[in-house]
Amino acid sequence: MAKLAVFDFDSTLMDGETIDFLARPLGLEAQVASITERAMAGELDFYKALRARVALLEGLEEQKVNDICAALPLIQGAAEVVAGLKERGYTVVCFSGGFRNATKPACQKLGIDADFSNFLHAENGVLTGQVGGEMMYSAAKGDMIVRLQSLLGIGREDTLVVGDGANDLSMFAHADTRVAFCAKPILKEAATHCVDVRDLREILKIV
């Protein structure tokens, strides 16, 4: 029986927020983190918050971005949960309101089947402060999961979703197994299971 598992990336598969790591060399980490925190708690529109944070990254060298992204720390148990789910017949996918520079290397490392995220725009090897992609809106993950379910012929009863913030709510609406991982209160309310230990192997006990 085909099954689908969809993971958020920042603070779910990866230990932290990609954009906070990118803001650090510019000395803007605190400023960016405060916007992230409010967006994940559902206090700010995700699209506006994303654009505001990316605008602060203008001038950062693209190579520096890629170097930082290649070294991002994964959450404990990330490799084991992906392998364990695949053994159980799951197609494992990552949805991120963050950036392909980060999701692509991490997902290749973890053996994840596909990643959907946004693109940081650069000109002459330097970030312009602009961003584009299919994961920029609060409803984006829900829209994408429905398309994937249709493509793979998988219903909500065979769909597992894992996330931590308000922008994961839209995909939670289309899965019967909904795991809030070290999550904000707004997501816990919509979850069927809450994991409050920073170890993704706990999810294997649920499935």
In summary, what is this structure?
Helix 2 (29-40) packs antiparallel against helix 3 (46-55) and helix 4 runs parallel beside helix 6. This protein has ten helices and seven strands. It is globular, with a radius of gyration of 16 Å.
Order of helices and strands: EHHHHHEHEEHEHEHEH
Based on the coordinates given, report the CATH architecture.
3-Layer(aba) Sandwich
Class inferred from helices and paired strands:
alpha/beta
Q: How far apart, in Å, are the first and last alpha carbons?
A: 14 Å
Question: Can you put this structure into words, describing what you see?
Answer:
With 207 residues, this protein is α/β, with parallel strands linked by helices. The chain has one domain: Rossmann fold. 40% of the residues lie in helices and 23% in strands. The protein has a seven-stranded mixed β-sheet with strand order 4-3-2-1-5-6-7, sandwiched between helices. A hairpin with a 2-residue loop joins strand 3 and strand 4. Helix 2 runs antiparallel to helix 3 and helix 4 packs parallel to helix 6. It is globular, with a radius of gyration of 16 Å. The chain starts with a strand and ends with a helix.
Strands, helices and their partners?
Blueprint: E1 3-8, H1 18-23, H2 29-40, H3 46-55, H4 62-70, H5 78-87, E2 90-99, H6 100-110, E3 114-123, E4 126-133, H7 140-152, E5 159-163, H8 169-172, E6 177-181, H9 185-188, E7 193-195, H10 203-206
Parallel strand pairs: 1-2, 1-5, 2-3, 5-6, 6-7
Antiparallel strand pairs: 3-4
Helix pairs in contact: 2-3, 4-6
